[in-house]
Amino acid sequence: MVSVMAPVAGARARVEFDLERQSVRELNQFLHGDLAGVQEVLVKNPDGAHSIAVGMNAAVRVDIGGHAGYYAAGMNKFATVIVHGNAGPGVAENMMSGRVEVAGFASGGAGASAHGGLLVIRGDAGLRCGISLKGADIVVGGEVGSFSAFMAQAGRMVICGDAGDGLGDSLYEAVLYVRGKVRSLGADARLEPMGERDHAAVKELLAAAGLPHSSSEFKRIASGRTLYHWNADAKQSY
Amino acid sequence: MCGIVGLLLKDATLRPQLGELMVPMLIGMTERGPDSSGMAVFADAVAADRRKLSLYCAHPGFEWRAFEGAWVGEIGAAQFEVNSNHCIVTTTSGIAAAREWIAINHPQVQVLSAGRSIDLYKDLGLPVEVAERYGFQTLTGTHLVGHTRMATESAVTIENAHPYTAGEDWCLVHNGSLANPGSLRRKLEKLGERFESDCDTEGACRYLHWRLSSGETLEQAVEHAFSDFDGFFTFLMGTRDKLALVRDPFACKPAVVAETDDYVAIASEFRSLAKLPGVKHATVFEPKPAEVYSWSV
Fold first, then answer.
1. Any idea what the Cα angle at residue A115 is, between residues A113 and A118, rounded to 5°?
2. B285–A126 C-beta distance less than 8 A
3. Is A127 within 8 Å of chain B by CB?
4. Which site from A91, A114, A169, B262 is most exposed, i.e. has the minimal number of CB atoms within 10 Å?
5. CATH 3.30.230: does it fit domain B52-116?
6. What is B2-45+120-296's CATH number?
């Protein structure tokens, strides 16, 4: 299930951090402390700093007012983190729950190894998006780079644009939905027919991301499961 | 890990501020490269019969004045601009003669670059220290290629610091690593290229220069590099009138570009671009893997 946090109405407490004057450590120590009564945190002048709002463990909303550097919102739990710009490598890596949104593009390894929650990237995602995905949902408004969803174990990815080379290489049980062209599929990834549950999943995720497409525009890619068991006859040629 | 910065000014009125705009970019890459820094600056070319050489000597007490006297006596008239451990010599006597004379008479002096447009600085230490030592803040020109190095495959020395140069008005900086620098080197040495360091990047610099010198376009040269280089790379390259950027097909090493009507700025990470004027309204993008991007002055 995807949980979408309702817009915060009449927030009791809105806290501002300005990374031009304050350090990321100060910000993160505040975010890791007692956030009782805090509903929104605004991070001004992020200017590509690393590790903004990593390790969140509270259902607050964090607005990053610009471009974020490496690992923004990594390990996120419960929080809604919105990057009002582009995100560097590893945004929402290892997310456990909550929601992370990127208004612009996300660099490589977006949502890597994420266990739960929803990652929405409105622009393009770089290479290795959703690598080793472990249960989270990822919606990309634009295209994804090569080697995305490599060894993805569980979770869903909705890709509204094109995908690069080697999509879904060595997939386990994650399922990918692609609207655009796929330059090439990775080993053991295969096109499968869209069933009712697939249409429902795509509709649910597009609605959660606020994207207008129809589920009928998407194709399903899942594991052929031929790599699940060792095949001595394959002689390492897949 | 290393940091890359590049800046090309489209608006000619900004040229006096090239250094001022670049210093925060270079310092922004300190965490990616605290071991050594370097900067290649391109300005309007000197007259066709002149050449500039950027020289470096590690000895703090090196007698540049005596060096100048000997040069003038033995090679001919030249202009000398000494800046800390560096000296830029402008000569009409030709690069080959100057290189040979330096190698024989002053082997402790290294030739960092040669050409009509390029000046090159590199030294050990944090970017902020190197920038202060050589007054990067006051550099002027049309475009530049800078690097902050975190040494991985060879020692922290001036020789192994970037940018690398080959021939005239050509330089390259590298974030990444090559696994076959030895075979590249053997191949190029047979073709007459002389190596001056142990760094994998020098092979890449000389390889691409060799291909360009044999008449290939940058796109053709890079296409060959994709099959001949075994490793990871983001390369930023500078010529008399161009900056060019390429990432390997796996794009393990980052790069981000910000472009406005006034400039094109390139860095490993956005945090190096964050202080540029007007960057909030710039077109910001990540270069795609295996594509050559270039911008002209």
1. 100
2. no
3. yes
4. B262
5. no
6. 3.60.20.10
